[in-house]
Amino acid sequence: MIRNDITPLHELARRPPEAGRIRLGEKTGSSMRSLDKLRFTSPDRSVIEQLADLYGGQCKPWNDPKANPSAQWQVHTEVAEVPVYLVPDGLSVWYETWAHGGVQRRCDGVMCEVPRVVGYDYEMVQQNCLCRSEGVRSCRPYTRMQLILPQVSFRGVWRLETKGWNAATELPGMYDAIVQLAQRGGELG
After folding, report:
1. Among residues 124, 170, 175, which one has the least CA distance to residue 147?
2. 160 or 1: whose pLDDT is higher?
3. Sheet containing 60-63: which strands, arranged edge to edge?
4. Residue ranges of the alpha helices (H) in the chain?
């Protein structure tokens, strides 16, 4: 499909490529299981091998039909924490509802975005929060952080995603405190 609208380059969203994911759990049958050590997935075998060398574990194939691409690599490490750099504006928290592999709504609790089909594509349309107007919360909090792993070859940012209430309330405060300390030249222990 050829698009007729031309967006000025300075208005395009700028984003770094995603090198992979930092995962805090894994699928076991039809449910998720929390992990006490970090698991990394990526389409790039070389960075997974680097992570395995640094933090233990073995680089293995990983396939998930919902992942893009579906055939990737993973390592279950032997560590629960790794050094990272925070990406500026690299934290987002939204209420979301997902179905059939796509987001059905994304909301901040006041305004909601829902997909609307436009030709062969879709666009997000804003409206009032549907959970609030329906009187039932059907969305869950999704917290996403973009991080850089300084000890592996740079291929882009690593995404850490969690759906818990504690993360939605605590990670933004931690993120802001770390950014403020860094701006003042403070150090973390």
Report:
1. 175
2. 160
3. 60-63, 71-76, 31-42, 18-28, 157-162, 140-148, 85-99, 102-107, 111-118, 121-128
4. 45-55, 130-134, 165-183
Would you say 118 and 125 are in contact if contact means Cβ atoms under 8 Å apart?
no
51, 52, 55, 85, 137 from 38: Cα distances, Å: 10, 11, 9, 17, 31
pLDDT over 60 (residue 19): yes
Q: Phi and psi of 136, rounded to 5°?
A: -140, 130
Which is more confident, 41 or 15? 41
- 42-62: per-residue pLDDT in tens? 999 999 999 999 999 999 999
**What does the pLDDT read at residue 1?**
45
Which is nearest to 82 in space by CA: 57, 55, 44, 46? 55
Distance (Å) of CA 50 to CA 63, 72, 81, 98, 172: 20, 15, 16, 33, 29
| Pure H helices in 87-155 | 130-134
Q: What are phi and psi of 113, to 5 degrees?
A: -110, 130
pTM, rounded to two decimals: 0.84
- Structure tokens of 66? 């919902």
User: For residue 40, what pLDDT is reported?
Assistant: 98
